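Researcher: Sequence recovery benchmark, item below. Answer with residues only.
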């Protein structure tokens, strides 16, 4: 049958509309996530900026020494699981939709898929996450005796305040995994906004009345309110969870559901482990210098160092935002070219060249864009380091100014690691950045122990710059090799 010109134009217009609608959703989701990510980081910067004005430099240093450890515990015990949940939820949703199409054509019902749709294995995951969070809370309380140094002199109430936040983090993390898996990206971004905004709002009264303890408690309030919003959205607007109470499952079906649930829970936990280790290692590396300075020099010196560290991290925002867009682009180009390889096995060499040139160009462009934005700011930070510190925190100290300059270079170098690591993750080499980060933690620890006793807080900055440079160069070289 011959297709007329008019029919061809209509079909083409219909396809264009479908593509446009699909891209609109993608662009909207990306917009919400990037916007909420930037807002969260800026409001978190405001959170830390307010702390020294309320509790002083020493109190600020104590908080800067405790929060990286608290975040690391939260990520390892709770936040590593939701991305794995999202993957399996979205896969199961896709299977359910496919089965519905088959039912319409063949008029039959697959019992296993029906049970899988009714089986709410996600709630079994929540039980494990809550259990893990209590283990993490007990670990947080014992940190006073594990870390030693000036950490052992801090009041027990600080560690109890950290421990309280960990179970609350399990709830908000679980709800985000559900929302991400169900592609409720706009609602997911709202939980980020509420969490970080609540921290700032409650920081002021709690820190004014209870000092450092109050500042730590404000984090629990942020987790709690963000988690409650996530739960409200889930049970209010997602039918699969909204109708949970009304579902009646027979005894035989319940047994099958338990088997399915146990299998899925096991798969999620196995899949989540490398994600949790990578995220934990990355978070720990970012503030390992503050932990060593707090332990070896005390809260006041760590507070001074915290001023420089906080300002320098502004330079890292751009790479974090660019990497959000970079991963799916490289993954998409990699997937397209793998399909070309399958279709053109005889021309596999040419296909690999195409793959390399396209994916490599994405990495080069992202690094170029990052440094175009970053270099003018880096220049300002280097030339006006002391003035920036005076304007931001009223501090004029040669060691702090020099630390800001060193850490600014470190943040710039580390941005190259972030983009190179994102490229490797996009083409399926997610474990390589993990191994390199672990190497960075070992190097950073050795350098901090060696340099801080000699150079004080500048030693921590130098340790960070050296270790960041080494892992960034290694990651960049490996990324170039794998992308070619």
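Model:
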């Amino acid at each position: 049958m011959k297709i007329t010109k008019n029919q061809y134009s209509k079909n083409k217009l219909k396809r264009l509309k479908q593509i446009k609608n699909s891209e609109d959703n993608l662009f909207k989701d990306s917009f919400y996530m990037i916007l909420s990510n930037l807002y969260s980081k800026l409001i978190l910067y405001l959170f830390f900026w307010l702390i020294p004005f309320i509790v002083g430099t020493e109190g600020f240093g104590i908080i800067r020494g405790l929060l990286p450890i608290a975040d690391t515990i939260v990520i390892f015990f709770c936040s590593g699981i939701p991305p794995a949940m999202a993957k399996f939820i979205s896969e199961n949703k896709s299977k359910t939709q496919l089965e519905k199409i088959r039912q319409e054509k063949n008029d039959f019902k697959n019992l296993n898929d029906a049970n899988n749709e009714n089986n709410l294995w996600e709630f079994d995951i929540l039980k494990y996450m809550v259990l893990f969070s209590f283990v993490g809370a007990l670990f947080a309380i014992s940190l006073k005796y594990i870390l030693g140094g000036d950490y052992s002199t801090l009041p027990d109430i600080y560690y109890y305040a950290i421990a309280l936040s960990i179970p609350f983090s399990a709830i908000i993390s679980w709800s985000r995994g559900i929302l991400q898996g169900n592609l409720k990206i706009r609602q997911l971004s709202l939980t980020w906004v509420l969490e970080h905004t609540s921290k700032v709002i409650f920081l002021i009264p709690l820190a004014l009345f209870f000092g450092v303890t109050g500042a730590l408690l404000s984090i629990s309030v942020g987790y709690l309110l963000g988690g409650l919003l996530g739960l409200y959205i889930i049970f209010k607007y997602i039918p699969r969870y909204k109708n949970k109470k009304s579902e009646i499952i027979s005894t035989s079906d319940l047994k099958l559901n338990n088997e399915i649930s146990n299998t899925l829970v096991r798969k999620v936990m196995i899949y989540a482990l490398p994600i949790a280790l990578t995220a934990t290692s990355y978070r720990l590396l970012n503030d390992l210098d503050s932990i060593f300075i707090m332990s070896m020099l005390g809260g006041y010196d760590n507070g001074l160092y915290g001023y420089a560290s906080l300002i320098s991290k502004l330079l890292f925002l751009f790479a974090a935002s660019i990497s959000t867009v970079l991963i799916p682009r490289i993954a998409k180009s990699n997937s397209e070219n793998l399909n070309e390889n399958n279709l053109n096995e005889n021309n596999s060499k040419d296909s690999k060249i195409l793959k390399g040139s396209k994916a490599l160009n994405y990495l080069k462009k992202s690094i170029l864009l990052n440094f175009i934005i970053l270099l003018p700011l880096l220049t300002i930070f280097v030339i006006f380091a002391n003035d920036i510190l005076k304007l931001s925190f009223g501090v004029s100290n040669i060691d702090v100014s020099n630390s800001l300059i060193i850490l600014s270079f470190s943040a710039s170098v580390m941005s190259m690691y972030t983009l190179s690591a994102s490229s490797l993750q996009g083409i399926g080499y997610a474990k390589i950045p993990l191994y390199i980060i672990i190497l960075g933690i070992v190097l950073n620890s050795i350098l901090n122990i060696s340099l801080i006793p000699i150079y004080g807080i500048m030693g921590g900055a130098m340790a960070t710059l050296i270790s960041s440079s080494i892992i960034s160069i290694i990651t960049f070289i490996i990324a170039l090799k794998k992308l070619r």
